[in-house]
Amino acid sequence: MTELRVGLIGLGMMGRHHARVIREVDGLTLAAVADAAGDPHGVADGMPVLGSVAELIDAGIDTAVCTVPTGMHEEVGLALADAGIHTLIEKPIAHSIEAGNRLVEAFTANGLIGAVGHIERYNPALQSLRERMAAGELDDIYQIATRRQGPFPARIADVGVVKDLATHDIDLTAWLAKSEYTSVAAQVTTRSGRAHEDMVAATGRLANGTITNHLVNWLSPMKERVTVVTGEKGAFVADTLTADLTFYANAVISTEWESVANFRGVAEGDVTRFAIQKREPLRVEHEKFRDAVLGVSYDVVTLQEGLNTLRTAEDLLLTARQPVDMRSA
């Protein structure tokens, strides 16, 4: 296999995980690392810590991974695109729609592979769930609901919970359903004293008619990462913390009680917990990006998909800033 020289820029919490996985994946060599703020987690492991994206490019790399703060994605990404370097950018794609558009245009114009690190797509529970949905195991899909809750992460400073966390749920929902959002609405609140929102309750509808619900926050003492897909035949529950997938089947109610028999509802049927292979999502993400660069396959989250997700997140924030006051109706 061709060995790709990978440059990593951004050596924070996510950067250290990317560095570990790059060193473990066949066909990848961590050739250079860069961060103007230094290397707090010892990611370099004896390598020189470069101070800028220009120095990273000069190190002679084939691909790059960008894990700098969101506000710097555009600057770093454009420099890498201009240098002809295939790049995986951590989510969200950028801090604004305009910046995201410029990134999409730059990588497209240069014929480069650009991808966004929406890692949940590579969670084994969601991979299995998508296959089962596509195979018709639920028949009609009614609703996709997600819960992503936990304590505040010290690593985040420049965006709120919508762009940092809810973008995971926006992306995975559209990907699972193979359908984009057509409408959204949200309520947000800020309780931690920061400039950005730290809790959101959002609803939406996809082009195929599926309705969605997302509860996301940084204010819960417990950590939860759950996706529930409800359809005609029952409901799948994916826990992406444990990579477990469970199916709750509908059971037909048989009764001679006329008033109950006239109600065509559902009841609990069989419950199945699937045994699935559990590979680390970040490792799979890097393997897919490697294969896309080498032309072996193309199973990455494209920059355009990342931009679509950011646009939906911006729409959520817009509806939260312009709520309807029912008292004046």
UniProtKB/TrEMBL annotation:
GO molecular function: nucleotide binding
Gfo/Idh/MocA-like oxidoreductase N-terminal domain boundaries: 4-118
InterPro entries found in the cross-reference section: Gfo/Idh/MocA-like_OxRdtase_N (IPR000683), Gfo/Idh/MocA_Oxidoreductases (IPR051450), GFO_IDH_MocA-like_dom (IPR055170), NAD(P)-bd_dom_sf (IPR036291)
First and last residue of the signal peptide: none
Coiled-coil residue windows: none
SUPFAM superfamilies: Glyceraldehyde-3-phosphate dehydrogenase-like, C-terminal domain (SSF55347), NAD(P)-binding Rossmann-fold domains (SSF51735)
Domain called GFO/IDH/MocA-like oxidoreductase: residue spans: 127-236
Protein name per UniProt: Putative dehydrogenase
Organism: Halopolyspora algeriensis
Taxonomic placement: Bacteria, Bacillati, Actinomycetota, Actinomycetes, Actinomycetes incertae sedis
